[in-house]
Amino acid sequence: MVSFLYSIEIALTRNSFEARNDFLFVGAINSDDSPNADSIIWFGEQILPLVQESLGEEVKLMVAGLICHGFRTRIKHNSVQFLGKVDDLTPLYNQARLFVAPTRFAAGLPHKVCEAAAYGLPIVATSLVGLQLGWDNERELLLADDPQSFADACLRLYTDRSLWYLLRDNVIKRASEDFSPEEFSQQLKRIVE
Questions:
Q1: Partners of 99 in the beta sheet?
Q2: pLDDT digit of tens for each residue in the chain (193 aa)?
């Protein structure tokens, strides 16, 4: 198990697989060359069109978080919706069918992925995110690193009800083990001793 000094409360959202739609990304885009900016550009330009073509329908990517000036104009895809700063993310976590973390470069703990797990939203991410968390492909989340593989993983999770519930159950369990207040207290105690 990877050790974290981080705590999060599990706050499961209630909507069923069938009552959900669209993708969710949460994170501030502070500059055009930030990891989150790269993630949205890569997903919006190279992955989302593949998903929509295969589904035969317009699925949206909802992006919650502050956006630097001028970034919106860099995304030409109308299916990427910038929501700006959202004070209560619960309705978005309850509406979205899956969370995407197309992170190609970053350092540290991917808090947005931990939060999605705590809300019980299944996740498709890059192997970098899986490595940062110590979570496994096909167990806690789906991992992919090129546009077609990432799109295929999104399609699987978006359309396969059984897989969606399996990954939801597994990621909730893992998040409650890795980020429980009790585990946080134990880690602090080990540091202090």
A1: 24, 123
A2: 444 445 688 899 999 999 999 999 999 999 989 999 999 999 999 999 999 999 998 899 999 999 998 888 888 778 999 999 999 999 999 999 999 999 999 866 788 999 999 999 999 999 999 999 999 999 999 999 999 999 999 999 999 999 999 999 999 999 988 875 555 445 444 555 6
d(CA 193, CA 183): 15
In whole angstroms, give the CA distance from residue 59 to residue 189.
46
Q: Would residue 149 be called left, alpha or beta, if left means φ above 0 and alpha means ψ between -120 and 50 degrees? A: alpha
CATH fold of 23-192 reads Rossmann fold (3.40.50)
Against a cut of 0.85, is the pTM above it? yes
Residue among 132, 155, 153 nearest 143 (CA): 153
Domain ranges of the chain: 23-192
| Residue 1 near residue 174 (C-beta atoms within 8 A) | no
